[in-house]
Amino acid sequence: MPTGVPTPAGTPVATSPAVPSTRKPAGGGRRDQLGSLLFLAPAAIWLLAITIYPVVATFRNSLYDETATTYVGLGNYKSVFSTASIIVNFRNNVIWVVIFPFLVTFLGLLFAVLTERIRWSTAFKAIIFMPIVFSATASALIWRTIFDLDPHVGMVNAAVQTASDWVNPPGLYPVNTSAGQTVAALASTGLSPGASGSLQSTSTAAAGDTVELGLIGINATTLQVVGAQTAVPPSASSGAISGLVYRDFSPSHPTVRGQLFPDEVGLPGLRLTLLRSDGASTASTSTDQHGNFRFDSVGNGSFRVQIDAKNFQSGFTGIFWLGSQSVTPTSHLSQTAQALLSVPLVDLAMIVAYLWMWAGFAMVVIGAGLTSLNRELLEAGRVDGATETQIFRRITMPLLAPVLVVVLVTMIINVLKIFDIILNMAPGSSQGDASTLALAMYNDGFTGGIHSGLSSALAVILFLLVIPAMVSNLRRIRG
Amino acid sequence: MSAVPTAVAPAAGRAGQRAFRFRPSRAVLDIVLAVVAIFWLVPTIGLTIISLRPERFFQQSGWWTVLGAPAQLTLQNYSTLFSQGLVPGGVLDSLTTSIAITVPATLLVAIISSLAAYSLVFGKWRGREVVFLAVVALLVVPLQVALIPVVQMFRGFGSLSGFNPYGTLLGVVIFHVAFGLPFGIFLMRNFLIGIPTELMEAGRIDGAGQWTLFQRVVMPLSLPAAMSLAIFQFIWVWNDLLIALVFLGGNPHHPLTIFLYDQTRTLAANYWVISTGAMVSILIPLIVFFSLQRYFVQGVLAGAVK
Fold first, then answer.
1. Which end of chain A has the lower number of beta carbons within 10 A, N or C?
2. What is the pairing mode between strands A199-201 and A191-193?
């Protein structure tokens, strides 16, 4: 495939590196030959010393111990394939290679094709392409915040929370059971735990009685949110059960419970149910601004007042997107099978971040490929009456295939060596489960002094993994 | 790094002859793509806003709530971050360290690649094709393969000569140049091969030597390609974390990527430092991107990505 290079005039022109240069040396003797070799010398020396020799040395080091002095044969490679954590690294490389390159190529193709139809394609392309100039480190930090567990910080969890609250609204007085809080602990005066997370009055009441119910452990933020005001003692009224729900905590008498002080507040907005002695509900109401309530015309019998469970229902508290919990059901499998078959959620979160970084690259390269398609072939197809879908599948796609392969291969090489995004995006708790070969190579080789053996073996494996891509590139260049 | 030889054809100006004509109306497409564009912008906007909000708001409410309270925005984080001055570990010191690594690594790659490409295209020695294919092969070599031996070499050199490049900015630059050269030579060679031989012949007949030809004919003509290469290399080096981590050792001067990495590892992560530092680190690449986008895209198309 021809390589596009900008000509001096600035118009891109396709030249073909596939054809070996056939320029005839125009005379000139040994001196000229020596001269042109001098031009090559700096690059040649640099590449021999800092690239080619070290590659050979790494192959050698991989057969020696960690100080590179004692020959251990294939010992390091045996450790690589028998160490559980390194098998997890391999698995993560496989996840990346299987998912990412195809997704990014597909997105790139989609964007490239769609932008052909809009007028603001230049702006669109710039927006999608922009993240490519950000370091993986900075991008990882951006996305770490986006996926943050706390819905007040992380956008994704904030969005999930909004949706979840809409479907299943949280109570005014949420009790975070996942943080170890219990509804029963809120009961202070006249209350005991009721059915399924509710509270109910300890003693029974009949028409004309008043009930005072005290809750404890309601935090100041909640009081502010609900707009709690000073508690007013309930006044009895005939035929009705009236009462008060208040915060059983007085700043002036912090240790006294069960007594209503002037600096205590009523709890508004609580949903209450009146229960008959057989436990069936007969009426429901809510507390007012001062925490007062009243059940009118209750009739004969004894009743209990229930503070409904939904008052304490906690809302959505966040999904740990950057955690190592597996999205594939592997918990029932053996440990080795788990290591091999689990797909930690953090891997998928990082793949999303990486798509954001690289979709622009795929779009631009595929877009250039689209632009250079042979338009006559497409027109001929149209004239012959082919539908647009047929044209896309039978003409455009086959013509575009080489470009798609180039993007795919480039992205495969890219993710085989993936490093910075994992180091910076996966938190400490899940980094081990998200780590890849390149990260393991760094961790083994360079943390706490330099250890050469195992790390060199990992580097050699990385090198061997890119050989197919190298061969494919060489084939393409030679034609 | 790998090659992405892609065709860049003459700009397609023929309206109506698109690769694929779409059924959905343009309005629908406009809306769909506008939504995509907004999604793509959100992370960058979020980072910008977090860096402009005082830290105390961070855990309280999401950055998006600022849309209702724009008064929260201030440049305070930036002035606090920069007030540390050139202290090792401070953001200003990291900014200058990043520049001190990136500028020489970029210039050296541009110059050495141009010289080598000249030799590969206009030189008169045998085996040029083989050397070029070797360069193509080197394009995809993972730099991990070279790390440990080069560290060992630097140390060996240190015990011989008294100067150990390991732990110095020079060591980082030397390594960067080595892994920038294959792409540089590849890109420049593919460009130079398009320069008409007649131009060179004319110069030769006039008695110009090789150096003169390179300097007077080849260099001016290949400036756009060299620009593409330089921008590409600049961004690559600027964004590197691994090479700096390995070769800086205990050096107190860190480039911006290490500055950010260190912040994430402190126990109480300072989000205002992280986000403000991240903004500082992406500022220069963004300026380069928006002012020289055309060259950057050409660099990406001509060769591609490590």
1. C
2. antiparallel
